Amino acid sequence: MFDFFKPTRGRNAVGMSRRLINSKEVDGKTIWQILSELGKTCIVMNVPVSYPPRPIKGALFTGMLTPSVDGDLTYPPDLYQRLKPELGEYCITVNWQGYSDSTVRDFLRDLGHCQKRRTEYCLRLMDEYPDWEFCFPCYTGTDRIQHAMWHYIDPVEREKIKAEGRYEEDIMQMVLDFYRQVDDEIAQLLEKAGPETAVFFVSDHGFGPMRGKFYVNEFLEQQGLLSVKRGKVRQAMVSLLARKVYHKALKTLGQKERLKRIREKAAADRQKEDTRTFYDVFYESIDWENTKVYMASNTEGGLYLNVKGRKLYGQEVDHGIIDPADYLAERQRVMDALRQIKHPDTGESMLSHVMPREEVYSGQYIERAPDIVFFLESGAWVADFSLGKGLYKRADWRTGSGMHRMEGCFLACGAGIAQRDAIETSIINVVPTILAYMGYPIPTDMDGRFIEEAFTDEWKASHEVSYSGDASETGKGWGHGKDVYDDDDEEVLVERLRGLGYID
Ligand SMILES: [Zn+2]
């Protein structure tokens, strides 16, 4: 899984599209599945792509990419309905893009409520499953606040908004209060877990300022590497916009039933121009016979070469034009061209990271990865695949003032864990480390390694790290490439990803 969206055969003129991924496509075992099989009770909350919920020994609340809290949210299936009357409505996320500079206080208040509710549910599950041995609450509120409020959080950025007269002290206090609240809630979880419990505190990325969006496909077109059917783009944008406005009007008028019928009809009739998904529009807008490379998602940071015989999208579809024999040369040419992406103010190259896929990924699924992975200014500029929007757009509320960086944080404490100032490690080492620390073998097909430097010499002298299975066991996960969302779910989730700033 390289992204929230995976290439799939499209019900459109070019036969190519993308759809959302789900937990059934995780083709390996999660740590909670491994521990469940070992008979350990687990509590897992809000981990992205855990929908639909799969059996676990213990309790699971699904996370990001869950269509609705009213649907299939938990394992055991009745768990949420049982706890809801007492604990109130659970909240998966707050879509910060749906707010604005004038409703920023509402955003911070709603984010605080969502966060609080998650902790209350987690504390309750620790009571309901007192024999738990692994508890994994995933907090996403810190990510959302950093996207939306980085101009307050980063002291350098804060000085800038003060100079511009955009700073408001009560907003600053609300931002600080959110962090105090998260600290306090973590303290509550640690207190309930008890002093014997080892704690691993991990973030999946860091943050930094967001300067703007760079529309990469427009750039590739200027370089002669991609061709767009302009008329198609204009036509599609108008009809998508009209549909959006119409649906919004129906919603406002309380005509939800009518909207539902329209969506059902749309699902049955994908061939009509006005029922296309935004991915149908995108793939149909590319002139494939004259396109060598393209970007197809904002969240995978990658480019695909249009190579003959790839058949990424199903057996019958092959719009490839690059001869496989020319692959390496063409790829190098594109990587060189990316250096021509210039900062709109300084004229300097914005390309800070560029790598061919084999330097980033390994394993049997590497053929499905984007051919090139790249970042602009370490993430300060976000590469966007939208068509028809010019070359770049500066950051505003809709793009957010903060964006992900590669460096996250890792803290650990507990028996046998060394007291050290700092170590540098990688996120992929965390799960093997936890398994070994709990005394279980690390599956040989799992990426990452045991973080030896985090442990005391005494602990290492009296414990052995072991491995199990052989690498040929990969591909025996929960399922292969099954879609679980209907068109209604998909539309809701795509809107939500848009609300989180992942799609323009
Ligand atoms: Zn984020």
Give the secondary structure arrangement, pairings included.
Blueprint: E1 5-9, E2 16-20, H1 31-37, E3 41-47, E4 58-62, E5 74-75, H2 79-87, H3 104-128, E6 132-137, H4 141-153, H5 155-163, H6 169-193, E7 199-202, E8 206-209, E9 212-215, H7 216-222, H8 230-252, H9 256-268, H10 278-285, E10 293-294, E11 302-305, H11 327-338, E12 351-356, H12 357-360, E13 372-376, E14 381-384, E15 392-394, E16 402-405, E17 410-413, H13 430-437, E18 442-443, H14 457-462, E19 467-468, H15 487-499
Bound molecules: zinc ion.
Please tell me about this protein's structure.
This protein is of the alpha/beta class. The protein has 2 domains: 5-16 and 211-241 and 273-394, no CATH class; 23-181 and 193-208 and 405-473, no CATH class. The protein has helices spanning 31-37, 79-87, 104-128, 141-153, 155-163, 169-193, 216-222, 230-252, 256-268, 278-285, 327-338, 357-360, 430-437, 457-462, 487-499, and strands spanning 5-9, 16-20, 41-47, 58-62, 74-75, 132-137, 199-202, 206-209, 212-215, 293-294, 302-305, 351-356, 372-376, 381-384, 392-394, 402-405, 410-413, 442-443, 467-468. The strands form 7 sheets. Strands 5-4-3-6 form a 4-stranded mixed β-sheet, with helices on both faces. Strands 10-11-13-12 form a 4-stranded antiparallel β-sheet. The chain has a 3-stranded mixed β-sheet with strand order 14-9-15. A hairpin with a 6-residue loop joins strand 1 (5-9) and strand 2. Helix 8 runs antiparallel to helix 10. The mean pLDDT is 89. The structure holds zinc ion.
